[in-house]
Amino acid sequence: MPIILWKIVALHLTTITTFSYCFRNDVTSDDNLQIPAIAKYFSTKGRYEEVNPYLIEDILAVNRSILQPPSAQCREIHLTAIIRHGTRYPTTKNVKKMLKLYDLVKTSASGKQNWLHEIQTQWTMWYTEDMDGRLVQKGVSDHKHLAVRLSKLFPSLISEQKLRSGLIQFITSSKHRCINSTISFKAGLTELWDIKDQEFDHAVNDALMRFFDKCTRFVQEVDNNPSALTEVDKFKQGPEMKRVQEKIADRLRVPYNTITDDMAEAAFYLCAYEFAIKTVNSPWCQLFDEVDAQVMEYANDLKQFWKRAYGYDINSKSSCILFHDVFSRLDKAANEKTSGQQVTEAVTVQVGHAETLLPLLTLLGFFKDTQALNSTNYAAQTNRTFRTSHMLPYAANLILVLYDCGGGDLRLQPLLNEKPVTFPGLGDQQASMPLYQNVREHYRELLQGCDFENECQLFKHPEEV
Ligand SMILES: *[C@@H]1O[C@H](CO)[C@@H](O)[C@H](O)[C@H]1NC(C)=O
Ligand SMILES: *[C@@H]1O[C@H](CO)[C@@H](O)[C@H](O)[C@H]1NC(C)=O
Ligand SMILES: *[C@@H]1O[C@H](CO)[C@@H](O)[C@H](O)[C@H]1NC(C)=O
Ligand SMILES: *[C@@H]1O[C@H](CO)[C@@H](O)[C@H](O)[C@H]1NC(C)=O
């Protein structure tokens, strides 16, 4: 079965290649027509290719010279990858919202635009509630292709020999979209190396990959607490969002009060899902211009900010368990290397959710702006670094690579979505990868504390507050 699948992928790639060859001069503009003008604002519903546009031309493209170890002696000795699942169907809750909007447009919209006519006469509502966030075929490809690219970027670590000898470990959240992503990642490697005589396990571990469900303090104070998102609610009732809703109503020629913030969100999702899943520039996208899309993006960023990131301290602290897990693997590899032993775990591939990655990125200090995102500073936040469209598309990944540069010189290179990044606050080492001991020193307080049990209990002991 996996072999047949690979052949289909290969065939598919051949078709694309042939196509682009025949229409060489047109291929870029033709591709661009398929991309909605607002695709770069889809937040956590965004396509991975929007973050790395060179992949649109060649989905297996890798540029090894982005990795610049300070000396030619440096060797990769360990890699941990924390990866979001691939492209998926909408969840039941969002399908319901989409259905409501579709019914309204179908029965009440009276605009005369071609795209509206297309929605009303040709487009069919094919999303069903039982899709429930499952991984789609594009999501399978997301992970297969990522696996192949990472094996090209780190050939000495993600290698057939290391896979065969059990030095690559797979850990996943229990959600079907994550398990299927993990299986797809493994299939990307086994098909690449044509491995048919061996299978590779994965461990399901929700304590690590869905820590947010297990952190009582987070669940009570944020996740199940409606007042935790007041800034989001206020923004959705505010002038910027009102204007977006009115413009949608104008385009459809329906009364203003029929387009709620939920309806606007559903329209945005429809455009985003049609693109992510089917790579089509759907007529639904015509309900937004770029200014509208920026407002929708901000509403999503605001939600992620308060629910998973800097909004509340517990959001990032809920990831303490994953933070320690990552550093204990790095420590183990570092200690084995330093004492002249073989590194027993070369690679760990961990598959989870946007909600897994964002708290960890926040704990590490990434994408922290000077001002908090709130309901009244939309304009002032135009140049914010906190942009989930850039950080968390489908298959988003944080990769930490430990290098041995000889003479006990261990260095750590972080990459986000396959691009080198620098640990915030370790900026003076921008040109080169920081020494691992400097990274440990930088995060000393977290390494000594950040205790999941303690942070996540509802009432902390006074001496630990
Ligand atoms: C590869 O990355 C290097 C360093 O960032 C850059 O100078 C070079 O232009 C890139 N090559 C390609 C083909 O993109
Ligand atoms: C994902 O896994 C389930 C079984 O858990 C299977 O039924 C489904 O077809 C898989 N989906 C994809 C896209 O591989
Ligand atoms: C939002 O943040 C700005 C600073 O960027 C501050 O001046 C303003 O009072 C805040 N608004 C609310 C509602 O907290
Ligand atoms: C954002 O950056 C642009 C370009 O650097 C600048 O012109 C603009 O004033 C900035 N906006 C804000 C609100 O800081």
Automatic annotation (TrEMBL):
One of its GO terms (molecular function) is inositol phosphate phosphatase activity. It is found in: Cell membrane. Pfam families: His_Phos_2 (PF00328). Keywords: Cell membrane, Disulfide bond, Glycoprotein, Hydrolase, Membrane, Signal. It comes from the Eukaryota. GO terms for cellular component: plasma membrane. Coiled coil: none annotated. InterPro entries: His_Pase_clade-2, His_PPase_superfam, Histidine_acid_Pase_euk. Disulfide bonds join 74-405, 271-285. The keyword Disulfide bond applies. Its EC number is 3.1.3.62, 3.1.3.80. It is an enzyme of class 3 (hydrolase). Residues 1-22 form the signal peptide. Gene3D superfamilies: Phosphoglycerate mutase-like (3.40.50.1240). It catalyses: 1D-myo-inositol 1,2,5,6-tetrakisphosphate + H2O = 1D-myo-inositol 1,2,6-trisphosphate + phosphate; 1D-myo-inositol 1,2,3,5,6-pentakisphosphate + H2O = 1D-myo-inositol 1,2,3,6-tetrakisphosphate + phosphate; 1D-myo-inositol hexakisphosphate + H2O = 1D-myo-inositol 1,2,3,5,6-pentakisphosphate + phosphate; 1D-myo-inositol 1,3,4,5,6-pentakisphosphate + H2O = 1D-myo-inositol 1,4,5,6-tetrakisphosphate + phosphate. PANTHER family: MULTIPLE INOSITOL POLYPHOSPHATE PHOSPHATASE 1, MULTIPLE INOSITOL POLYPHOSPHATE PHOSPHATASE-RELATED. Belongs to the histidine acid phosphatase family. MINPP1 subfamily. This is Multiple inositol polyphosphate phosphatase 1. It comes from Lates calcarifer. The gene is MINPP1.
